[in-house]
Write a structure and sequence with these properties.
Length: 171
């Protein structure tokens, strides 16, 4: 994790973050309520394509009517005239976090995130690439999981022919 925005793309994303942190994010096309790792989240979409994409990959059992703990607005970078920014820049995978008394701003290669103290969050990523959404959620969720004495582990597992389970921990 780094605290500087030396790279040009990071500087551009930082200025975007500063701009977005000062405006409201209430406008959305549609929304769904999901339980993600047992955290109720209302996800507000900026495009119908985002909703279609996400509802196609989320298990139906994640739908919920519970009151949302997080109110997340997901802006599609390709629909928000942010096409001049490389949202797939793999050359720099560090997560950069800036904090103020009102919000926390996170910038990584494939997403920009802002969390306000009231539980409202903004995530900007390219909806055609799942990585931005998932990396944004990996930044956002741990603080809420810790409130429940829980953690999130990026991993996969298989059961081998020998009947033993093998766990692979990701980065």
């Amino acid at each position: 994790m780094t605290n500087d925005f030396d790279a040009p793309i990071r500087s551009l994303k930082k200025s975007l973050a500063t701009s977005y942190s000062k405006i409201g994010w209430e406008s959305s096309v549609d929304n769904i309520n999901v339980n993600y790792h047992d955290i109720p989240i209302r996800i507000n979409f900026s495009t119908e394509l985002q909703k279609k994409h996400l509802t196609n990959v989320l298990p139906e059992c994640w739908s919920t009517n519970n009151q949302a703990r997080i109110d997340l607005t997901w802006l599609d970078s390709s629909a928000e005239n942010l096409k001049g920014i490389d949202w797939d820049d793999d050359s720099e995978s560090d997560l950069t976090i800036l904090s103020s008394s009102e919000s926390e701003i996170a910038v990584q290669r494939d997403f920009l995130g802002i969390l306000r103290e009231n539980g409202k969050a903004l995530l900007v990523s390219d909806s055609r690439n799942n990585d931005g959404l998932h990396n944004g959620l990996r930044w956002l969720l741990p603080r809420f999981l810790l409130e429940k004495n829980s953690i999130q582990l990026h991993s996969s597992a298989i059961i081998g022919d020998d009947g033993l389970a093998y766990l692979f921990v990701g980065q």
